[in-house]
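Put briefly, the fold is written as integer tokens. The lines below illustrate.
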Amino acid sequence: MKKGIKGRVVLIVLTVILSIVFFLPSTRYFSSLPAWWGKYLPSKGITLGLDLQGGIHLVLEVEEDRAVDNNLDRMMTGIKDAAGEKKLDLAGIKKTGPVELTLETAKKEGKDPLVKLIGEQFPSLTVKETRETGIVLALSTDEVKRIKENAVSQSMETIRNRIDQFGVAEPLIQRQGTNQILIQLPGVKNPRQALDLIKTTAVLEFKLLDDENPMARDLPASIKPEEEAARMIEWGSKVPEGDEILFERVVDKETQAVTKRPFLAKKRTLLTGDLLSDARMSFDDFNKPYVSITFDSTGARLFETITGENIKKRLAIILDRNIYSAPVIQDRIGGGRAQITGGFSPEEATALAIVLRAGALPAPVSIIQNVTVGPSLGQDSIDMGIRAAKWGTLLVVLFMAFYYRMAGVIADFALGLNVILLIGALAAMNATLTLPGIAGIILTIGMSVDSNVLIFERMREELRLGKPVRLAIDAGYDKAFLTIIDSHVTTLITAMVLFIFGTGPIKGFAVSLSLGVTINLFTSLVGTKVIFDLINSRRKLERLSI
């Protein structure tokens, strides 16, 4: 066997073995494999989507106008408290429009101090109109847009936090339109429980860490998520009275591996998220991102007291009993504004700001679509998809063998190789397989022999011109090469567009199609060519069965 042929054969064998290794966790045989397999080799395979294993499909609508209304209510309370502290002339305050507040003063000269206060502490409000003993304030158009945008993003983050705790594999949570949220929960058998979980208000808390206790120093730096329950039982009797164990979820940036870091925290809640009026990602003088948080007047007073009494201690920011950050208090913080620093990337700082704002749903959400897909329907879909794939593959295999004879059998080998590598690639990516994804695989089966048809027809032309078999085979591959590349690239571009602009199932179709097309280039240009080269290397072909 020539060196070039041997290298290609080894490459094909290795890719087949890898594909089988990655796909095994998706089969019923995985449970019978030895325990060490999951420790050293892939233990996750292809996940079935909502349409294949059942679950629930929800579309929620965020009432954005209520978010604006809630924001105005908080501002009214804040203005009253701030004016009271400074003993300003504020006779009354009320909402006079969807985005308007009217302030009344007892005396004409009482307006200017109020205008100054608004400019200093409530910059998102602008003076729309001044009257003899009153001021009309309004939220700017940009501020209204920001509040509505935040309402949807906060609702998504809160819902995602809840669903993560529910333990749903591969949930789909994404924005749909301007104020709707699409949620798909594959495998959920109790829709009522999932709905209750999604609509429950999240809890944002600020608590001190008990770093001075000896037990805090004995806690491990990290544990695996599946160890949490056992460790809580182990530590239960050792936790000091008035303390509790809370965890921070840590994701490795390179491997995406998830671990949990335990902390010993005081049970007493010092501050809650309902006193937080805003949180935003900002940049310091050195262009490093940080999170800027703002409390309402009550929260500002509490926060100043807490920070003043606990300098050099760590204050944990906790959402749904998960620690997100635990900065050290460096000094007393007044004015109701604070910064959270921690070497964040812009994306991490933005995510933390959303988490801080997501302590409670910022506006009511209503369910406008609720579809429960039963597991029997999912199994029917799987059976129909498998049946279609079997019949499609069988018909293509028979046609190629009948029409192109021995060359057709070689093309059938490439088809089988294509399917093996495709399901292996999907398993390696831990892809979610949907019914459209199965359709993409079936389409790939047809396309996998299309390239060989182009090559075989070129071979026939060369043979008709009287060229030797060896030269005819080489010429067939050489002359069809650019045509095959062109057709596959255009299909890949289409698949890319579907992936970027499509939603859930459409993306599944795009993934299986793009992988199938890419793998098809390998199987048609390398897989079949190496078979012809193997045959030619053993004996000189005088005629080709094509």
Summary: The chain has 15 helices and 19 strands.
